[in-house]
Every structure is written in structure tokens, then in C-alpha cells.
Recover the amino acids of this structure.
């Protein structure tokens, strides 16, 4: 904010921050290069494949075993929480898919959504259940590849947007400002 305050003072206008958000937490290039953490899994290909028509993704390839970096407690706390939520959503989706009975057009077993989960995670899990129940019975095409997996991709993106603090945890940080003359 020092730069913004200085620019405001020098230009004679008021610059007010509206919103900050992190960019590319889940699949930025920094994840594939492993420049920042050698333990980062390569997520770009499996996440992109969620949006490929008629391509089924190995959903387990989306799971992240986060390894904390010593001396970065604040970052570790966020990433442990974030990847726990992403892993929970992916595992929930895997479970729903394996428990959907196409012949009966119903889910035989629905894993419990824990009340202590963040609201965004609970919403994403509920949405995945509704999508699978709503379209799982469709007998033509590949409903998993063409409808369910893209929705999982959008749900992961929702977690990325909703759970981030907007303080620089991703590949970059974006700020939106209002300039008043």
C-alpha cells in the first residue's frame, strides 16, 4: 500500500483498494515447475483434463499431499487448509461416482458432509452430489467426462476463489482500486 499511497499523494487523487485476490493458487505454472516447493504435484494437466470433452480424468491425480516448508507457518496453515478442502472435495466426488447405481438412478451411499467444513467446501460438495444425482443416469455420451468432471473443475475453482485471503499466496496477487479525482 506504500506505493499506492505515494501514487495517490503525487497525483493528487484518492486511490482506494476495492479488492485483493490471489492468482493461480491451484494450477499456476509455479506448481508444475516446482520452483517454490519441490513437493508440489503437477496439477495443470489433470485439472485441464477435467474440461476436455470425452476424456476421463484420473481423479486421484488431483489429490495433493501437502508437505509444509519449515519457517513458513502462516503459508503452511493456509495451504494445509486449502489442500485439505480440495482433497476432501475430490475424494467426495470419487465416492459419489463409485456409489451411483445407474440402473436404479440413485446414489446408494452419500458420504456425510461434516458441519465444521468451511461453507465453500460444503456448498461445493452439495453441488457435486446434486450434479451426479441429476445427470448420472444419462445413458448416451460420457456424462462423467462431459458434465460431472467439468463441474468438479468449476467447484475446485470456487474453492480457490472463496478460500484465499488475497494476501499473495498464489502465483501473483491482483488488486482492484477505485481512483477518485
Amino acid at each position: 500500500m506504500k506505493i499506492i499511497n505515494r501514487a495517490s499523494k503525487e497525483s493528487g487523487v484518492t486511490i482506494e483498494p476495492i479488492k485483493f485476490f490471489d492468482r493461480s493458487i491451484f494450477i499456476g505454472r509455479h506448481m508444475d515447475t516446482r520452483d517454490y516447493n519441490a513437493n508440489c504435484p503437477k496439477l495443470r494437466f489433470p485439472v485441464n483434463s477435467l474440461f476436455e470433452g470425452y476424456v476421463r480424468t484420473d481423479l486421484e491425480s488431483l489429490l495433493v499431499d501437502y508437505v509444509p516448508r519449515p519457517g513458513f507457518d502462516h503459508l503452511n496453515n493456509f495451504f494445509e487448509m486449502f489442500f485439505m478442502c480440495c482433497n476432501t472435495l475430490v475424494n467426495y466426488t470419487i465416492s459419489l461416482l463409485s456409489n451411483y447405481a445407474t440402473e436404479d438412478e440413485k446414489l446408494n451411499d452419500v458420504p456425510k458432509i461434516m458441519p465444521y467444513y468451511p461453507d465453500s467446501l460444503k456448498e461445493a460438495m452439495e453441488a457435486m452430489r446434486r450434479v451426479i444425482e441429476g445427470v448420472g443416469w444419462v445413458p448416451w455420451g460420457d456424462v462423467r467426462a462431459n458434465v460431472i468432471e467439468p463441474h468438479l473443475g468449476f467447484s475446485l475453482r470456487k474453492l480457490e476463489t472463496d478460500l484465499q485471503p488475497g494476501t499473495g499466496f498464489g502465483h501473483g496477487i491482483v488488486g482492484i482500486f477505485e481512483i477518485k479525482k
Remarks:
- The chain has one domain: 26-163.
- The radius of gyration is 20 Å.
